[in-house]
Amino acid sequence: MATARTADIRPEIDAALVRRLIDTQFPRWARLPLKLLDPAGSDHVIYRLGEELAVRLPRHAGAIGQARKEFQWLPQLAPYLPLAIPLPVGVGEPDFGYPWPWAVSRWLEGEVATVGALADSTRTAIELAHFLAALQRFVPENTPKTAREYLTSWSLSDRDRATRVAIAKVDGVFAASAMTSLWDAAMSAPGWDGPPVYFHGDFHSGNLLTIHGHLSAVIDFGGLGLGDPACDLMIAFTLMTAGSRATFRDTLGVDDATWLRGRGWAMATGLNAYTSYAAVSPQVAAQTTRQITEALIG
Asked: Which domain holds residue 62?
């Protein structure tokens, strides 16, 4: 958990630091070359280590728990999921001025999924529905309750105030009345009444990998949690079109209330990213504009 003291820390991370961390804490990999992965996302700096490993160091305090979380959970999840996921092989400790735990995982080949390649693909929609269904069926064996306490647990209502502020900020760019209507409906929808299930927590196109145009892996499980699976429906609005979205929903068997909450999640997360990054990143502006627009379409 990030504290007020650590919230604004942005450590300097370069190849020399990563080399020292690897050489001292994992000397068996000391001779392997390092190559910066750029761009690598907003949460981690990533280096490829040799041909088979990746080193991931949190950029900010919001990501500091991910290394140990993934080390605990991903080896348990992997055998039950129909797509590859990262397999952690070590957690490094703070050292040489770097303040947080960091991770070494198996390298996953692939390119980040794109709307242009996969948006209309019914095959992709079905594969993603099967992945989420398998994740939601997952029941861990012999896991201490203390480990589950570190899983994400959140509610759509937690985003109410921030989302309404964001809607007001973007009025004129998007239709504020339509966004308010969707948000009011999502907030009023019946809550999840089934048993808590596992969710990815950040299930968007940027966390999907492809090989030769087909899905190959799902990455970045920092938001892995237990509860209402509606948040994972954001993938239907970040990646899919209306036709593939219908296939996805039918395959996964999503009821009306969960679908409505999922639209709310997609709009809220899209608005958060848009108001935070659109001014400095045309790519984020385009991606989140699509996400918000598709969530409004439904």
From this structure: 15-108
